[in-house]
Amino acid sequence: MTLLKKAKKRRNSKSDIVFICVMLSVPVLHFALFWLYINIDTIFLSFQKFELNTGEWVWFGFGNYKLLWQEFTKANSVLPRAMLNSFSIFLWNDFVIVPVSLFFAYVLYKKVPLGGVFKIIFFLPSIISVVVLTLTFSFMFDASFGFLPNVFDKLGLSELVPFDGYFGDKKYAWWMILLYGLWSGIGYNIVLVTGAMTRIPQDVIEAGKLDGLTMWRELFSVTIPMIGSTLGTLLLLGTTTIFTYFLQPKLLLGTNAENVGGYTIALYIVNNVRDAGTPQMALGATMGILCAAVGTPIVFGSRKLIDRFLPAYEY
User: Fold this and answer.
1) In the 8-state DSSP scheme, what is residue 119?
2) Residues 160-214: pLDDT tens digits?
3) What DSSP element (H or E) covers 220?
4) Given CA atoms 249, 250, 254, 260 in this order, what sign does their dihedral have?
Protein backbone atom coordinates (compact mmCIF):
# COMPACT_ATOMS: atom_id res chain seq x y z
CA MET A 1 0.00 0.00 0.00
CA THR A 2 2.86 2.32 0.81
CA LEU A 3 4.44 1.75 -2.61
CA LEU A 4 1.11 2.38 -4.34
CA LYS A 5 0.65 5.63 -2.43
CA LYS A 6 4.16 6.76 -3.35
CA ALA A 7 3.58 5.89 -7.04
CA LYS A 8 0.26 7.75 -7.04
CA LYS A 9 1.88 10.74 -5.35
CA ARG A 10 4.62 10.80 -8.00
CA ARG A 11 2.02 10.68 -10.77
CA ASN A 12 0.12 13.54 -9.17
CA SER A 13 3.34 15.53 -8.80
CA LYS A 14 4.20 15.00 -12.47
CA SER A 15 0.68 16.06 -13.47
CA ASP A 16 0.98 19.19 -11.35
CA ILE A 17 4.32 20.04 -12.93
CA VAL A 18 2.93 19.55 -16.45
CA PHE A 19 -0.12 21.67 -15.62
CA ILE A 20 2.04 24.47 -14.17
CA CYS A 21 4.39 24.41 -17.17
CA VAL A 22 1.51 24.57 -19.64
CA MET A 23 -0.17 27.43 -17.79
CA LEU A 24 3.09 29.38 -17.50
CA SER A 25 4.07 28.84 -21.13
CA VAL A 26 1.53 31.36 -22.46
CA PRO A 27 2.59 34.37 -20.34
CA VAL A 28 6.28 33.47 -20.69
CA LEU A 29 5.94 33.22 -24.47
CA HIS A 30 3.98 36.47 -24.55
CA PHE A 31 6.67 38.22 -22.49
CA ALA A 32 9.51 36.81 -24.59
CA LEU A 33 7.89 37.65 -27.93
CA PHE A 34 6.01 40.89 -27.36
CA TRP A 35 8.28 42.54 -24.79
CA LEU A 36 11.78 41.07 -24.72
CA TYR A 37 12.22 40.44 -28.45
CA ILE A 38 10.55 43.69 -29.54
CA ASN A 39 12.56 45.82 -27.13
CA ILE A 40 15.87 44.20 -28.04
CA ASP A 41 15.05 44.56 -31.74
CA THR A 42 14.13 48.24 -31.17
CA ILE A 43 17.50 48.91 -29.54
CA PHE A 44 19.36 47.38 -32.49
CA LEU A 45 17.10 49.17 -34.97
CA SER A 46 18.00 52.56 -33.47
CA PHE A 47 21.63 51.97 -34.56
CA GLN A 48 20.76 51.02 -38.15
CA LYS A 49 19.48 52.68 -41.30
CA PHE A 50 17.64 51.40 -44.34
CA GLU A 51 19.51 51.52 -47.64
CA LEU A 52 17.06 52.26 -50.43
CA ASN A 53 19.50 51.05 -53.11
CA THR A 54 20.00 47.59 -51.63
CA GLY A 55 16.82 47.26 -49.60
CA GLU A 56 18.80 46.18 -46.54
CA TRP A 57 19.40 47.46 -43.03
CA VAL A 58 23.00 48.53 -42.38
CA TRP A 59 24.87 49.68 -39.27
CA PHE A 60 24.57 53.44 -38.74
CA GLY A 61 26.02 53.92 -35.24
CA PHE A 62 24.69 57.00 -33.48
CA GLY A 63 23.57 58.52 -36.78
CA ASN A 64 19.87 58.25 -35.93
CA TYR A 65 20.42 60.05 -32.64
CA LYS A 66 22.20 62.88 -34.49
CA LEU A 67 19.37 63.04 -37.04
CA LEU A 68 16.82 63.21 -34.24
CA TRP A 69 18.69 66.08 -32.61
CA GLN A 70 18.82 67.90 -35.93
CA GLU A 71 15.10 67.30 -36.35
CA PHE A 72 14.48 68.71 -32.88
CA THR A 73 16.53 71.87 -33.40
CA LYS A 74 15.53 72.73 -36.98
CA ALA A 75 13.09 75.54 -37.73
CA ASN A 76 9.38 74.63 -37.67
CA SER A 77 10.09 71.24 -36.08
CA VAL A 78 7.07 69.51 -34.54
CA LEU A 79 9.12 67.90 -31.77
CA PRO A 80 9.31 70.84 -29.29
CA ARG A 81 5.54 71.31 -29.47
CA ALA A 82 5.06 67.52 -29.29
CA MET A 83 7.04 67.40 -26.05
CA LEU A 84 5.08 70.35 -24.63
CA ASN A 85 1.78 68.70 -25.55
CA SER A 86 2.81 65.37 -24.04
CA PHE A 87 3.77 66.91 -20.71
CA SER A 88 0.61 69.03 -20.71
CA ILE A 89 -1.45 65.82 -20.97
CA PHE A 90 0.29 64.52 -17.85
CA LEU A 91 -0.33 67.77 -15.94
CA TRP A 92 -3.94 67.93 -17.17
CA ASN A 93 -4.59 64.37 -15.99
CA ASP A 94 -2.97 64.68 -12.57
CA PHE A 95 -4.04 68.21 -11.67
CA VAL A 96 -7.42 68.53 -13.41
CA ILE A 97 -8.98 65.19 -14.38
CA VAL A 98 -8.10 63.29 -11.21
CA PRO A 99 -9.21 66.11 -8.82
CA VAL A 100 -12.47 66.59 -10.77
CA SER A 101 -13.05 62.83 -10.69
CA LEU A 102 -12.35 62.79 -6.95
CA PHE A 103 -14.86 65.57 -6.33
CA PHE A 104 -17.69 63.91 -8.27
CA ALA A 105 -16.86 60.50 -6.80
CA TYR A 106 -17.09 61.95 -3.31
CA VAL A 107 -20.44 63.57 -4.08
CA LEU A 108 -21.77 60.25 -5.38
CA TYR A 109 -20.25 58.44 -2.40
CA LYS A 110 -22.27 60.65 -0.06
CA LYS A 111 -25.39 59.13 -1.68
CA VAL A 112 -26.92 62.15 -3.38
CA PRO A 113 -30.34 61.63 -5.00
CA LEU A 114 -30.08 59.69 -8.30
CA GLY A 115 -26.42 58.96 -7.53
CA GLY A 116 -26.57 55.60 -9.32
CA VAL A 117 -27.96 57.24 -12.47
CA PHE A 118 -25.23 59.88 -12.47
CA LYS A 119 -22.59 57.19 -12.01
CA ILE A 120 -23.86 55.40 -15.12
CA ILE A 121 -23.92 58.66 -17.08
CA PHE A 122 -20.33 59.43 -16.08
CA PHE A 123 -19.18 55.89 -16.89
CA LEU A 124 -20.86 55.62 -20.30
CA PRO A 125 -17.98 57.23 -22.27
CA SER A 126 -15.58 54.66 -20.79
CA ILE A 127 -17.41 51.64 -22.25
CA ILE A 128 -17.81 53.03 -25.77
CA SER A 129 -15.14 52.47 -28.41
CA VAL A 130 -12.65 55.34 -28.57
CA VAL A 131 -13.29 55.60 -32.33
CA VAL A 132 -17.03 56.13 -31.79
CA LEU A 133 -16.37 58.40 -28.84
CA THR A 134 -14.00 60.72 -30.72
CA LEU A 135 -16.40 60.80 -33.66
CA THR A 136 -19.27 61.79 -31.37
CA PHE A 137 -17.16 64.45 -29.68
CA SER A 138 -16.03 65.93 -33.00
CA PHE A 139 -19.64 66.03 -34.23
CA MET A 140 -20.69 68.02 -31.15
CA PHE A 141 -18.23 70.78 -32.08
CA ASP A 142 -18.43 70.56 -35.87
CA ALA A 143 -18.61 74.05 -37.39
CA SER A 144 -21.36 73.03 -39.85
CA PHE A 145 -23.84 71.03 -37.77
CA GLY A 146 -22.35 70.72 -34.28
CA PHE A 147 -24.48 71.36 -31.21
CA LEU A 148 -22.31 74.06 -29.66
CA PRO A 149 -21.73 76.06 -32.89
CA ASN A 150 -25.49 76.00 -33.56
CA VAL A 151 -26.16 77.33 -30.05
CA PHE A 152 -23.65 80.13 -30.59
CA ASP A 153 -25.23 80.94 -33.94
CA LYS A 154 -28.73 81.19 -32.44
CA LEU A 155 -27.41 83.41 -29.66
CA GLY A 156 -25.77 85.72 -32.19
CA LEU A 157 -22.28 84.63 -31.12
CA SER A 158 -21.22 82.99 -34.34
CA GLU A 159 -17.90 84.85 -34.18
CA LEU A 160 -16.90 82.45 -31.40
CA VAL A 161 -16.76 79.62 -33.95
CA PRO A 162 -13.47 79.58 -35.90
CA PHE A 163 -13.65 79.57 -39.69
CA ASP A 164 -11.86 76.19 -39.88
CA GLY A 165 -13.71 74.79 -36.88
CA TYR A 166 -12.35 74.14 -33.41
CA PHE A 167 -10.28 71.18 -34.56
CA GLY A 168 -8.83 73.02 -37.55
CA ASP A 169 -7.74 76.15 -35.72
CA LYS A 170 -4.29 76.16 -34.09
CA LYS A 171 -5.60 78.35 -31.29
CA TYR A 172 -8.25 75.84 -30.17
CA ALA A 173 -7.16 72.40 -31.43
CA TRP A 174 -5.07 71.28 -28.46
CA TRP A 175 -7.57 72.67 -25.96
CA MET A 176 -10.19 70.50 -27.63
CA ILE A 177 -7.94 67.47 -27.06
CA LEU A 178 -7.68 68.38 -23.37
CA LEU A 179 -11.44 68.92 -23.15
CA TYR A 180 -12.02 65.51 -24.72
CA GLY A 181 -9.69 63.95 -22.15
CA LEU A 182 -11.73 65.48 -19.34
CA TRP A 183 -15.06 64.50 -20.89
CA SER A 184 -14.10 60.90 -21.58
CA GLY A 185 -11.75 60.24 -18.68
CA ILE A 186 -13.58 61.13 -15.49
CA GLY A 187 -16.12 58.29 -15.72
CA TYR A 188 -13.55 55.51 -15.42
CA ASN A 189 -11.82 57.33 -12.56
CA ILE A 190 -15.09 57.90 -10.74
CA VAL A 191 -15.91 54.19 -10.73
CA LEU A 192 -12.47 53.28 -9.33
CA VAL A 193 -12.44 56.05 -6.72
CA THR A 194 -16.03 55.41 -5.62
CA GLY A 195 -15.22 51.72 -5.24
CA ALA A 196 -12.25 52.60 -3.04
CA MET A 197 -14.38 54.95 -0.93
CA THR A 198 -17.00 52.29 -0.26
CA ARG A 199 -14.28 50.14 1.33
CA ILE A 200 -13.59 52.73 4.05
CA PRO A 201 -14.85 51.35 7.40
CA GLN A 202 -17.95 53.23 8.48
CA ASP A 203 -16.75 53.03 12.09
CA VAL A 204 -14.02 55.53 11.21
CA ILE A 205 -16.52 57.94 9.65
CA GLU A 206 -18.95 57.64 12.55
CA ALA A 207 -16.17 58.22 15.10
CA GLY A 208 -15.14 61.34 13.21
CA LYS A 209 -18.69 62.67 13.15
CA LEU A 210 -18.88 62.30 16.92
CA ASP A 211 -15.85 64.60 17.09
CA GLY A 212 -17.54 67.18 14.87
CA LEU A 213 -16.03 66.09 11.55
CA THR A 214 -17.44 68.19 8.69
CA MET A 215 -17.97 66.83 5.20
CA TRP A 216 -15.00 68.72 3.71
CA ARG A 217 -12.77 67.81 6.65
CA GLU A 218 -13.80 64.21 6.16
CA LEU A 219 -12.75 64.38 2.51
CA PHE A 220 -9.27 65.75 3.15
CA SER A 221 -8.46 64.16 6.51
CA VAL A 222 -10.08 60.74 6.20
CA THR A 223 -11.23 59.84 2.70
CA ILE A 224 -8.24 60.94 0.62
CA PRO A 225 -5.61 59.39 2.94
CA MET A 226 -7.51 56.09 3.11
CA ILE A 227 -7.89 55.79 -0.68
CA GLY A 228 -4.34 56.97 -1.29
CA SER A 229 -3.29 53.79 -3.10
CA THR A 230 -6.09 54.17 -5.68
CA LEU A 231 -5.37 57.86 -6.22
CA GLY A 232 -1.68 57.06 -6.47
CA THR A 233 -2.36 54.53 -9.22
CA LEU A 234 -4.40 57.07 -11.21
CA LEU A 235 -1.69 59.71 -10.80
CA LEU A 236 1.01 57.26 -11.87
CA LEU A 237 -1.00 56.27 -14.95
CA GLY A 238 -1.18 59.97 -15.76
CA THR A 239 2.62 60.08 -15.74
CA THR A 240 2.82 57.36 -18.37
CA THR A 241 0.61 59.35 -20.76
CA ILE A 242 3.65 61.55 -21.49
CA PHE A 243 4.95 58.78 -23.72
CA THR A 244 1.79 56.87 -24.70
CA TYR A 245 -0.85 59.46 -25.68
CA PHE A 246 -1.41 59.39 -29.44
CA LEU A 247 -4.72 57.79 -30.44
CA GLN A 248 -6.98 60.67 -29.37
CA PRO A 249 -5.16 63.46 -31.30
CA LYS A 250 -4.75 61.12 -34.28
CA LEU A 251 -8.48 60.41 -34.43
CA LEU A 252 -9.68 63.94 -33.62
CA LEU A 253 -7.17 65.91 -35.71
CA GLY A 254 -6.20 63.35 -38.35
CA THR A 255 -3.54 64.39 -40.83
CA ASN A 256 -4.01 68.00 -39.74
CA ALA A 257 -2.38 67.32 -36.35
CA GLU A 258 0.99 68.67 -37.47
CA ASN A 259 -0.47 71.91 -38.86
CA VAL A 260 -2.55 72.77 -35.79
CA GLY A 261 0.08 71.86 -33.18
CA GLY A 262 -1.54 68.60 -32.15
CA TYR A 263 1.49 66.33 -32.20
CA THR A 264 2.60 64.30 -29.17
CA ILE A 265 5.76 62.25 -28.67
CA ALA A 266 3.86 59.00 -29.13
CA LEU A 267 2.08 60.30 -32.24
CA TYR A 268 5.45 61.28 -33.72
CA ILE A 269 6.70 57.71 -33.18
CA VAL A 270 3.54 56.14 -34.60
CA ASN A 271 3.61 58.30 -37.72
CA ASN A 272 7.28 57.51 -38.32
CA VAL A 273 6.75 53.78 -37.88
CA ARG A 274 3.43 53.34 -39.70
CA ASP A 275 2.86 56.27 -42.04
CA ALA A 276 6.30 57.47 -43.14
CA GLY A 277 7.50 54.14 -44.54
CA THR A 278 10.29 51.68 -43.73
CA PRO A 279 13.25 54.12 -43.84
CA GLN A 280 11.77 56.19 -40.99
CA MET A 281 11.24 53.21 -38.68
CA ALA A 282 14.76 53.62 -37.30
CA LEU A 283 14.00 57.22 -36.32
CA GLY A 284 10.85 56.10 -34.53
CA ALA A 285 12.82 53.38 -32.73
CA THR A 286 15.41 55.96 -31.68
CA MET A 287 12.73 58.20 -30.23
CA GLY A 288 11.30 55.18 -28.40
CA ILE A 289 14.69 54.40 -26.82
CA LEU A 290 15.09 58.01 -25.69
CA CYS A 291 11.57 57.98 -24.23
CA ALA A 292 12.44 54.83 -22.26
CA ALA A 293 15.69 56.39 -21.03
CA VAL A 294 13.93 59.59 -19.93
CA GLY A 295 10.62 58.08 -18.90
CA THR A 296 11.92 55.32 -16.59
CA PRO A 297 13.41 57.69 -13.98
CA ILE A 298 10.35 59.96 -14.28
CA VAL A 299 7.98 57.08 -13.54
CA PHE A 300 10.08 55.72 -10.66
CA GLY A 301 10.52 59.21 -9.24
CA SER A 302 6.78 59.81 -9.47
CA ARG A 303 6.16 56.50 -7.74
CA LYS A 304 8.38 57.47 -4.80
CA LEU A 305 6.77 60.91 -4.58
CA ILE A 306 3.27 59.44 -4.66
CA ASP A 307 4.14 56.84 -2.01
CA ARG A 308 5.44 59.62 0.21
CA PHE A 309 2.34 61.80 0.07
CA LEU A 310 -0.29 59.10 -0.56
CA PRO A 311 0.84 56.02 1.39
CA ALA A 312 -1.23 52.84 1.22
CA TYR A 313 -3.16 51.95 4.39
CA GLU A 314 -4.49 48.50 5.16
CA TYR A 315 -7.95 48.30 6.65
Assistant:
1) H
2) 888 888 898 888 999 999 999 998 888 888 888 988 888 888 888 888 887 788 8
3) none
4) positive
